[in-house]
Design goal:
The protein is built from seven helices and six strands, in the order ααααβββββαααβ. It is an alpha+beta fold and 222 residues long. It folds into two domains: 68 residues; 135 residues, putative membrane protein from Corynebacterium diphtheriae superfamily (putative membrane protein from Corynebacterium diphtheriae fold), CATH 2.40.410.10. It starts with 9 loop residues before the first helix and ends in a 12-residue tail after the last strand.
C-alpha cells in the first residue's frame, strides 16, 4: 500500500476537512442519542412495570453504546491518524456545479492478505477543494478512508472506501504537488479516460464500480 507522509495542518483540517466535520456531527448525534436514551431508561424504571423493566434494559444498552461511540469518535477521527492510515490514491474532478464538485477516485478495495489488488472507481461529492482549480480533469491526490460497518471481518474487500483529498489536510501547495507526482501517470490516465463513468458509479448500489483486472493496464495488475 502506497503511503504519503506529511505534516497535517490541524487548524486547516478542522476548518475544511469534510470527513472531520462528518465525524464531529456523528459524535454530537451519539451523545444526544445517549442522553435521550438515558432519560427514556429513567422513565421506564419510574413506570415500574415488568414490561417497562425489559425495555429499560434495552434502552440502557443502547445508551451505553451511543455514549461509547461518542467517546471513541475523537480517537477514530483524529485527522493526522486518518491521513497516516490511508493509502495515497488519485482522484480527478469529474463534474463541477455551484455547490462544489464530484471526484472520481481509483481505490484498492482489497484487505490485507488478500491476493492481488481489487481496483474500483468511487465518487465523492465535495463542497470545497482548497489548493485546486474547480475544473473537470483537475488532478486531486487523496488518501483512502476505509470502513467495515459489520462488527467482524466480512469477505476480502472493504465494504466502504472513500477518498479524502490531501488538500483538506494542508495549505502547502508544494505538499499537494509532491503527492500528485508520487502517483503513477498510468493511474491518472485511467481516471481521465473514464470520467464518463462517474454518473454510473454514483448510481450504483454500493457506490463503487469494480474494474475487471484483465482490462487494467499492465502496471496495475499486481
Amino acid at each position: 500500500m502506497r503511503r504519503f507522509e506529511f505534516a497535517v495542518d490541524r487548524d486547516h483540517a478542522r476548518a475544511v476537512n469534510e470527513v472531520v466535520a462528518y465525524l464531529r456531527r456523528l459524535r454530537i448525534w451519539a451523545f444526544t442519542a445517549a442522553a435521550g436514551l438515558g432519560l427514556g431508561t429513567a422513565f421506564l424504571i419510574w413506570v415500574n412495570h415488568p414490561w417497562s423493566w425489559l425495555l429499560a434494559v434495552a434502552f440502557l444498552a443502547a445508551a451505553v453504546t451511543a455514549a461509547f461511540i461518542g467517546y471513541w469518535m475523537p480517537h477514530r477521527g483524529r485527522v493526522d491518524k486518518l491521513y497516516a492510515a490511508g493509502a495515497l490514491v488519485p482522484a480527478v474532478v469529474s463534474e463541477t456545479n455551484g455547490n462544489g464538485a464530484t471526484l472520481l477516485a481509483l481505490v484498492d478495495l482489497a484487505k490485507p492478505n488478500t491476493p492481488g489488488p481489487r481496483y474500483a472507481l468511487v465518487t465523492r461529492t465535495v463542497r470545497s477543494l482548497p489548493g485546486h482549480r474547480a475544473r473537470t480533469g483537475e488532478r486531486v491526490p487523496a488518501v483512502t478512508v476505509r470502513v467495515d460497518r459489520a462488527p467482524g471481518p466480512v469477505g476480502d474487500l472493504w465494504q466502504t472506501v472513500s477518498a479524502m483529498p490531501i488538500a483538506w489536510g494542508t495549505r502547502d501547495l508544494n505538499i499537494i504537488e509532491r503527492a500528485r507526482e508520487a502517483i503513477h501517470e498510468v493511474e491518472w490516465k485511467l481516471l481521465t479516460d473514464n470520467l464518463d463513468l462517474a454518473t454510473k458509479v454514483r448510481g450504483a448500489d454500493a457506490k463503487r464500480l469494480l474494474l475487471d483486472p484483465r482490462q487494467l493496464p499492465e502496471e496495475l495488475r499486481g
